[in-house]
């Protein structure tokens, strides 16, 4: 499901980097250590695996309950809904006609998930006869219906339920890192009173939100065909799963649209959206491909979504299974509670991910909205066509969708782009692994919402990448073809995937699936090498905790370079401490462990500066270059190293150029004037906006030096990222004319620029800027508010206390009640900024902490100083 929210996981990234540069910043995996030279002799000190160890902080609660797949008593065969929104009361009036049959055992009772409804009546539907009322009990969560008799597994029956869904009356506090709310049905600006925001109605079904707007068996191992009729105002557009099979005008001035999905899918994938959308039409192989956006974005919709037909063609051919559904639509909605959601035939996106002005489009990298689009589309095969049987098997959905992002980047933009995706996602998993390590397939957990994490997404995708590298491309994609064909339109568990790979390859892959899907953690490798007796002596130690994690079996490629020639060795690591002898006629110029960068591991390889420089000059692609740059950063003052970094500023791949710029941050070597000149040239003339922005950011790291002319020129750059970087730089040392120039940007709606403006005024603002903060704290996007609200607190420290009342009240209200937790955190941090001058606020902050229900947010509060 959904594309994971970037918000919380990026909150603690260094504020000085542009967002895309932050994403490119490498983690430890594959990193090299320049701190110790290559050993002259073999590394022979014995390694003793620990036999006892303290319980690590990442070990999950061992008392969590087992969570088996849901028992299937009834098969949900078909769902027909007749729905009419009540905008003034934010209700949904509905009639649901459900077709069911007992799964195996005879049944006389039906239990449905139905959250927060008013039930008006339930009847058994009989062909050609008047419906028969049925008895039921209802506790606002489960609807228990007594059938008219016992039904056998060969008998279908229909029940009709008249109800009113009242999503706003549901208890609050649900949701997860990926989905911040779980009330299923959302009215946006229902009375039209919010200026600048359209009236919309949309749904979010995963994980159990569908039962907040229609009665169903809300489990992923159910499958149903579906027909939804929506009665709306005539000027509103509708969207649902499947095809629009009829649209009729009614005598009361409304219109009823009927959408029908003819192939079965899981209930959580049902969706609807209603609003004032512009529909931009496209097609693929004669199937409709439509983009639903706000009217203001009709002219940029194809620029954002326009690669969808090519994605459909690429994925269909790569998987050997054509896109299996009747149409594909994508809709952008306001205030979405997730990043995006892969509803069958109709994916939903938060508007901030896909709606951009023409100027903003220049700043949207392929690993931004395009990767989200690829992710949700890949779900149409992995998640919709073949579905995880239980939420514990979530990686069978999410790991594949995550890997779909890499496949698209590789196809469309090349191996360097795929390597960037690989590195970023591995870093995200390793960050989460510092506090949490779980098996990919989880049979015990407290809440299925907990499963939507960097394990199910980023780790799962990296495991698939290793599997592809292990068996080869032909076998990997042939196995996926077999898996999809054998399990189409059904729900599966992990053994089905393993069986497909084993039947294709003829290999027993139990070891791989057990190790990577069923056991927690990852290898932590310490790699050293020496040269003796015409051989490279390579020592690999697995130093991870092996009480709670396994000693891993790791097929790996090691490249040994002699001069300009490399020899690749395929090794298999099976022990906690293992030494290999690799023949070499002369001392190698470079020994590169995990040459292809495929291992899901935290790798610390000891390499000398000379080896790293050789690696940088002979690197095969982005991963090896950026690893060398990271390892050489501490040596950037050396003439050879800084010259190498400057040469990389012309590398064909933009993210490599960003890494080289970061390597020159705060440069103190002999080439100071040359380096600064090069940085200024990049800031002014580089084609890629992220690279220009990074150059400005790096220039600003040189203390007591002024590059005001570069920054002022950048304020009017065509890229918002560059303008934002210039504002950040000027905030540190504003010139006399800076304030007037920055003021010209105040009306912007661009998130990056708004964050930077708030930072500028947080450091340099006066009472004159107070009203700007008050206004922006009302209308800025949630991802902006996290930064803006903390800066609001900083500004208020410099204005008279008598003027602060509105601002304090705004921050407190947002800290207590905003639906998105990272906005609450930003407001909390804003209040915390004021405790030095207003000690009484400490009591308010304590009360906010005590009343906060989200445990993750409470933990974050403890980090706020």
From TrEMBL:
Question: Aminopeptidase N-like N-terminal domain: which residues?
Answer: 80-269
Q: Name one GO cellular component term.
A: membrane
UniProt keyword Protease, yes or no:
yes
Q: Which UniProt keywords apply?
A: Aminopeptidase, Hydrolase, Metal-binding, Metalloprotease, Protease, Signal, Zinc
Query: What CDD domains does the entry give?
Result: M1_APN_like
All residue ranges annotated as the Peptidase M1 membrane alanine aminopeptidase domain in the record: 307-516
Question: Which N-terminal residues, if any, form the signal peptide?
Answer: 1-21
Q: Where is this region: Disordered?
A: 25-45
EC numbers: 3.4.11.2
Gene3D superfamilies reported in the protein's UniProt record: Leucine-rich Repeat Variant (1.25.10.10), Neutral Protease Domain 2 (1.10.390.10), tricorn interacting facor f3 domain (2.60.40.1730)
Q: Name one GO molecular function term.
A: alanyl aminopeptidase activity
> What are the names of the required cofactors?
Zn(2+)
Q: Does the keyword Electron transport apply?
A: no
GO biological process terms on file:
peptide catabolic process; proteolysis
Q: Which Pfam families match?
A: Peptidase_M1, Peptidase_M1_N
InterPro entries associated with the record: Aminopeptidase_N-like_N, Aminopeptidase_N-like_N_sf, ARM-like, ARM-type_fold, Peptidase_M1, Peptidase_M1_aminopeptidases, Peptidase_M1_dom, Peptidase_M4/M1_CTD_sf
Q: Which domain of life is it from?
A: Bacteria
The enzyme class is hydrolase
Q: Which reaction does it catalyse?
A: Release of an N-terminal amino acid, Xaa-|-Yaa- from a peptide, amide or arylamide. Xaa is preferably Ala, but may be most amino acids including Pro (slow action). When a terminal hydrophobic residue is followed by a prolyl residue, the two may be released as an intact Xaa-Pro dipeptide
Q: Which family does it belong to?
A: Belongs to the peptidase M1 family.
Q: What is this protein called?
A: Aminopeptidase N
């Amino acid at each position: 499901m959904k594309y994971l929210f970037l918000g919380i996981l990026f909150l603690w990234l260094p504020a000085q980097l542009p967002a895309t540069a932050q994403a490119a910043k490498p983690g430890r995996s594959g990193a090299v250590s320049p701190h110790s030279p290559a050993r002259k002799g073999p590394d022979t000190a014995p390694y003793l695996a620990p036999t006892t160890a303290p319980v690590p902080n990442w070990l999950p609660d061992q008392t969590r309950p087992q969570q088996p797949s849901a028992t299937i008593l009834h098969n949900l065969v078909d769902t027909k809904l007749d729905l009419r929104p009540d905008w003034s009361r934010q209700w949904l009036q509905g009639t649901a006609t459900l077709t069911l049959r007992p799964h195996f055992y005879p049944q006389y009772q039906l239990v449905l998930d139905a959250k927060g409804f008013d039930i008006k009546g339930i009847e058994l539907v009989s062909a050609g006869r008047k419906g028969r009322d049925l008895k039921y009990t209802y506790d606002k969560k489960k609807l228990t219906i007594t059938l008219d008799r016992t039904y056998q597994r060969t008998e279908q029956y229909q029940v009709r339920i008249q109800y009113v869904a009242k999503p706003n009356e549901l208890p609050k506090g649900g949701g997860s890192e990926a989905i911040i709310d779980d009330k299923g049905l959302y009215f946006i600006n229902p009375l039209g009173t919010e200026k600048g925001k359209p009236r919309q109605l949309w749904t979010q079904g995963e994980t159990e939100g569908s039962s907040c707007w229609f009665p169903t068996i809300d489990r992923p191992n159910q499958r149903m065909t579906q027909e939804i009729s929506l009665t709306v105002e005539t000027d509103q557009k509708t969207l649902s799963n499947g095809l629009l099979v009829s649209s009729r005008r009614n005598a009361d001035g409304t219109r009823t649209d009927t959408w029908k999905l003819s192939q079965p899918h899981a209930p959580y994938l049902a969706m609807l959206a209603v609003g004032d959308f512009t529909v931009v039409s496209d097609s693929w192989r004669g199937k409709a491909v439509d983009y639903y956006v706000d009217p203001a974005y009709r002219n940029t919709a194809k620029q954002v979504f326009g690669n969808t037909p090519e994605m459909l063609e690429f994925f269909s051919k790569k998987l050997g299974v054509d896109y299996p559904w009747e149409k594909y639509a994508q809709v952008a909605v306001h205030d979405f509670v997730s990043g995006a959601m892969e509803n069958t035939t109709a994916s939903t996106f938060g508007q901030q991910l896909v709606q951009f002005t023409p100027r903003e489009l220049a700043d949207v990298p392929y690993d931004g909205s395009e990767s989200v689009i690829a992710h949700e589309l890949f779900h149409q095969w992995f998640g919709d066509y073949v579905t995880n049987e239980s939420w514990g098997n979530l990686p069978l959905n999410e790991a594949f969708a995550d890997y779909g992002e890499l496949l698209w980047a590789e196809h469309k933009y090349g191996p360097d782009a795929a390597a960037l995706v690989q590195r970023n996602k591995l870093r995200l998993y390793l960050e989460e692994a510092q506090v949490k390590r779980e098996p990919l397939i989880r049979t015990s957990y407290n809440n299925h919402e907990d499963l939507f994490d960097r394990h199910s997404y980023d780790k799962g995708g990296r495991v698939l990448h290793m599997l592809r590298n292990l068996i080869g491309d032909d076998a990997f994609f042939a196995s996926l073809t077999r898996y999809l064909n054998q399990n189409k339109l059904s729900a599966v568990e992990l053994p089905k995937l393993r069986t497909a790979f084993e039947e294709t390859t003829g290999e027993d892959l139990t070891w791989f699936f057990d190790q990577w899907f069923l056991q927690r953690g990852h290898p932590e490798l310490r790699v050293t090498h020496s040269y003796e007796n015409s051989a490279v002596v390579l020592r690999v130690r697995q130093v991870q905790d092996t009480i709670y994690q396994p000693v891993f079996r790791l097929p790996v490629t090691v490249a040994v370079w002699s001069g300009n020639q490399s020899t690749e060795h395929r090794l298999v690591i099976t022990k906690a401490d293992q030494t290999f002898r690799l023949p070499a006629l002369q001392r190698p110029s470079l020994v590169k462990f995990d040459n292809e960068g495929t291992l899901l591991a935290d790798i610390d390889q000891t390499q000398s500066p000379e080896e790293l420089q050789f690696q940088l000059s002979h690197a095969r692609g982005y991963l090896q270059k950026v690893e060398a740059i990271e390892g050489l950063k501490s040596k950037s003052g050396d003439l050879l190293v800084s010259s190498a970094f400057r040469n990389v500023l012309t590398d064909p791949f933009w993210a490599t150029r960003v890494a080289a710029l970061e390597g020159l941050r705060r440069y103190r070597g002999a080439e100071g004037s040359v380096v600064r000149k090069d940085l200024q040239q990049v800031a002014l003339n580089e084609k890629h906006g992220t690279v220009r922005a990074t150059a400005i950011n790096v220039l600003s790291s040189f203390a007591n030096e002024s590059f005001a002319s570069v920054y002022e020129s950048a304020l009017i750059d065509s890229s918002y990222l560059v303008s934002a970087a210039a504002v950040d730089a000027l905030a540190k040392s504003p010139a006399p004319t800076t304030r007037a120039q920055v003021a010209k940007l105040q009306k912007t709606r661009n998130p990056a620029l708004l964050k930077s403006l708030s930072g500028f005024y947080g450091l340099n603002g006066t009472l004159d800027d107070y009203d700007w903060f008050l206004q922006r704290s009302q209308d800025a996007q949630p991802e902006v508010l996290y930064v803006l609200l903390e800066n609001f607190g900083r500004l208020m420290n410099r204005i008279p206390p008598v003027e602060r009342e509105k601002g304090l009240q705004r921050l407190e209200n947002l800290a207590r009640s905003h639906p998105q937790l990272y906005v609450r955190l930003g407001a909390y941090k804003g209040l915390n900024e004021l405790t030095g001058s207003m000690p009484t606020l400490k009591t308010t902050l304590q009360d906010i902490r005590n009343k906060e229900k989200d445990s993750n947010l409470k933990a974050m509060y403890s980090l706020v100083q």
